[in-house]
Request: fold
Amino acid sequence: MKAVDFSWVAGATLEQASQKAKAGSKIIAGGQSLGPMLNLRIAQPDALVSIAGLALLRGATENDTDVTIGACVTHAQIADGLVPDIGSQILPRIAENIAYRAVRNRGTIGGSLCHADPAADWVTTLLALGASVVIAGADGTRLVALRDFFRGAFRTCLAPGEILQAVRIPKLNDGQKFGYYKACRKPGEFAHAMAAVLQMKKTTRVVIGAMGAIPLIFEGDEATLQSIAPAFTARAGGIDDVTRHMQLIAVKRAFEKLSA
Amino acid sequence: MNEISFHVNGKPITAEITPRTHLADYLRESLCLTGTHLGCEHGVCGACTLLVDGEPTRSCITYAVACAGRDIRSIEGLEHDVVMAALRTAFSAEHALQCGYCTPGMLVTARDIVRRLPDADDDRIRLELAGNLCRCTGYNGIVRAIRRVLDLRLNFETVPVDRVSEMAPIETATTKPILKIAKPIQPTGDGLRQTLSFAVPRDILWRALQDPALVASCVPGATILSIAQTHITGEMAVAFGPIQGKFNGSADVTYGDYEGTVLGEGQDKISKTKLTAKAFFSVTEADVSSSVLALTINYSLRGALAQFARGPVVQAFADEIAGIVGQTLQAKLSGSGTMIAPKRLSAFRLAGLVFWRWLRKLLNLAS
Reply:
């Protein structure tokens, strides 16, 4: 239960952190998911590059259409309403149910996305909300839609040296509504089923997470309460009946929770 | 060793600390502040909860070097805190502890509830306590103790919390998708199945599969250490995202009439994870010049790695590996010579050379 020996570098600037983040090293923000993996020696990096101290990553901003949140803003800060929201209490309600308060105090929104755990709250909800990530690398910054960011469970498109700088989330508009539900055996535990729904003017998007791979995204004709069951069964493959039932109940409850 | 300065219970400290030392170990081993308890050491039980800059923090998954410039307060440093004093009395009065192991973490979390949620009802108290495990009390006493202190409506100093700072807008170039979302995987309930077609006669495919090493090399990340007839020992490296493992183990291959089985088991020494797997393969003739290999693989994973790589995650990952192995094998056997880009999986990178060697052998056998 002790991590392997690694070196620790606290990046003074984003550029410096990016230069230090070579193959074999790992970027660490709050370390609330990486920490357990390190202690269990499931992850054995040569070096950790800390970005938690970078003021650049700890701010937030908004314009008429989006909210942009720095990668190192914590779940607790979002839960406490210390960043702009995209609707009425949407981001705080997601944040306040992530793990436990002590974990939320250190865990970050950017770290959660980079960790890409299929059962993470932000992974599923921000996919539904159509968020993008700002990625800083040697050649400047680029904006990548979140649905193109994830490559699989625990894997993203980040290249060595690239750092997720911020998350851009569109504000709800024009009668859009959002709903989210997750099923956990105990509050704060990994979810066994989760679904997020974004109801837009002409279409609806349903995202089902806590699966083996990245969450499944359903849009258009598939994304209604009536048609989601066959669509999900077709795309989820040979999952067991209990899991299928739980996931579909999560979808139903996410629809029930739709609000602006 | 990194030189770090912080405050512990109000005292400034500068020390050389190894990066892998977590905060709880540093406090306990170097400062003899043994009031901070360690239970699970991976952020689940809450026994190690203490305050960093006034906020409850898991000291087992917070490295000491990550606390430069911070104000750390362990249970020992809260002796004169007005809320903590009331909680100590209430915990005692309400039988909120028995063995006392969870108590330091419980008290720190309880203090946070009292200060942050003055109007909490009992359900909210229970919800907030979800991250602190107690195996003695059944929690009733703890909830009553916190209720009692909330009802006292104590006066305590609060520090105003600021909104996060305004960030300058970021100019970005919108780029095209780097990689499309992977096709949905179709795992079966009882393991994974792959059916692969080869543009070689059945006997050639079957002869290629008679080499046990070849069969074992179907697993990416595998390195063969020894082969004694049908008994193979070797290692298998697994890496996806931050998760890494290296399994040492053995496999036995048995052959029947155009079919066979592989029984394997391995252990990742570091994470103490055990893997057992059983594969069944059969070769059928499609026509004179082509054949079909059917593979069914069942496996189970136990131990630390299984805890993080939860069932469905392992399944999806294994399916992905199997799919790519199948395609690679197919390409090699049918002589197209095109290697499916192995860079997609780090397991492949680790296995790259070994994999190539066996693929070449397969190619020679098949042609």
